[in-house]
Amino acid sequence: MKRSYSLRIRLTLIILIPLLFVAGAAGFWQLNNARLTAGDVFDRSLQSAALAVSNDVALSSGDALGVETRRILADTSGGRVYYHVYAPDGVIVAGYATPPAGIPTATDGDLNAVYFNGEYLGREVRGYRMRTHMQVDGFSGVFTTTVWQDVRIRSTFVRALILRSLVVISSIILSLALIVWFGVRIGLRPLNDLQQAIDLRSGDDLKAIQRAVPAEVKGIVRTLNRLLGQVSDAMATQGEFISNAAHQLRNPLAGVLALAESVRSARSEVAMRERAEDLVKAAKETSQLAQKLLTYERAKSISPASEKEIFSLRDLLNELVLEFQAVPHRGIEIDASLGDEVLEITADRTMVREAVANLIDNALKHGGPKLSRISVSCESNEAAVSISVEDDGRGLNQEEIQTALQRFGQVSANSDGSGLGLPIVVRVAERHGGSLELTTGEPGLKARISLPAGFTGKH
C-alpha cells in the first residue's frame, strides 16, 4: 500500500525544497563572487601600494617613504605588503632585499604592469610589478617597483565573506521555513474545521455541507455533497421499497396464509384440491407482485454505467414477441412490425426488455373483451428512436391515463394488476433520458417509449 504523508508536510517540502535549491545556487554564486571580489579588491590594493611606493621613491630618492605609504604597506586589506624598487642597472633602491620567486621577466622596452603568483619565504604570495620612467639622484631610466602579499590573508578574507553570506542565507532560509510551516498550518485550518464539522455529524445527518471553505476545497466539498445526496437518495429509496413491499405484500401474503390454512382444514379431497388451486393462483400473483416491486426498484438504480450495453433493438423485440406468441391469449394476435433496418442502441438491455414486456402485458390485462390485436413496432430518426405497443382494446381517457401512470394506480377496482406496470416503463424511459407517451384512440391505446439519439446507433 502506498504510504501517505500529511498535507502539511507535502506543502512544506514542496515549498522548501525549491528554496533550498535556490539557496544552494545563490551560495555557490556568492562563493564564486566572493573570490572574484576579493581578488579584485586585493589586486587593486597592491596596485595602489605600488603606485604609492614608486611615487615616494621618486620624491625622496629612495631614502624614506611617507607616512601614508607606510600605513598602506602595513595594513592593506588586512595584511602587510612587502616591496622593493630596482634601478635600471639592477641595483636595489628601496625595500626588501630578497624578492619573491616567480616574478615575470621583462624586456627593456616592456612597460606593462603585471600581476603574478609566486613564493616568498616558503609562503604563497600574490604580487604586482610595474615599470615606470623615473629620475632618482640625477639617474633616469626605467625603474621596477614590485609589491607582494601573503595569499593566506586573501583566503581568510574570502572565508569571512563567505561565512557572513552563509549566515545571512541560512537565517533567511530558516525564517522562510518557519513562515511556511506556520503559514501552511494556518492555511489548512479551514480543512481541520471542515473535518471536525463532519466528525460531529451522525449517520442520519446527510444534509449537504454549507460551511464556507477556500476555493481550492470547493470541488471536494461539492463532490462530497453529491455523494451525500446519492447516499440519502439510496436510503430514501430503500425505505420507500421496504414501505411499498410491506404495504403491497401484506394482504396477498395474508391471503396465501389463509388459503394454506383452508387447504389443511379441508374436509374432503375435492375441497382440498379446489382450495389448493386457489392457493397456487394466489401464490403466483404474490410472486408476480414481488417481482414487479423488485423491477420497479431496479429501474430506479439505472445509471450511466449500466447503459453501456450495445444491442440490436430489432432482435430484442422479435425475441420478446415470439415469447408472448408462444402462450395462448384468448385468440389475441400479437405481431411485430420492425422493418429491415438494423438498429442498435446503447442502453440497459434487461430493463428495456422489461419495459416493453410490461406494455404488452398491460394491454393483455386491461385491453378488455374486445381486444383482438397487439402490434409492436419501432422507428428512428436523427433525434430519437421510439418503441411503440399499440392495441385495439378499450383504451383509456386522460383521467384514467393519469391514474395508470401513478405508482400502484388502478384504473378499475376489479383489476388484478399490481399497479406498477406503467410506472416501471416510465422509470426505465426517464433513467435513459427518454419518456413514455400514452395516446388513446378509437379504439385502443398506443404506448410509445422515446429514447434520445445519444442512446442510439443506426447501421
Which spans of ≥5 residues are poorly predicted at pLDDT below 50? 455-459
Q: Estimate the global geometry from the Cα principal axes.
A: rod-shaped
Oligomer description: single chain
Number of strands: 13
Can you name the CATH architecture of the largest domain? 2-Layer Sandwich
Task: Count up the domains.
Answer: 3
Q: Provide the spatial order of strands within the biggest beta sheet.
A: 2-1-5-4-3
Give the C-level CATH assignment of the largest domain.
Answer: Alpha Beta
State the secondary-structure class: alpha+beta
- In the CATH hierarchy, the third-tier topology of the largest domain is known as Heat Shock Protein 90
Residue share in helices? 40-55%
Ends apart, CA distance between termini:
47 Å
Tell me what you see in this structure.
It is a single chain. This protein is an alpha+beta fold and 459 residues long. The chain has 3 domains: 7-159, Beta-Lactamase; 215-297, Helix Hairpins, CATH 1.10.287; 302-458, Heat Shock Protein 90. It has helices at residues 7-60, 67-74, 151-187, 189-199, 215-264, 269-300, 313-325, 349-366, 398-405, 421-431, and strands at residues 81-86, 92-95, 114-120, 123-136, 139-150, 309-312, 333-337, 343-347, 373-380, 384-391, 435-440, 445-452, 456-458. The strands form 3 sheets. It has a 5-stranded antiparallel β-sheet with strand order 2-1-5-4-3. Strand 3 (114-120) and strand 4 form a beta hairpin. Helix 1 runs antiparallel to helix 2 (67-74). The radius of gyration is 52 Å and the shape is rod-shaped. Its main location: membrane. Residues 244-455 form the Histidine kinase domain.
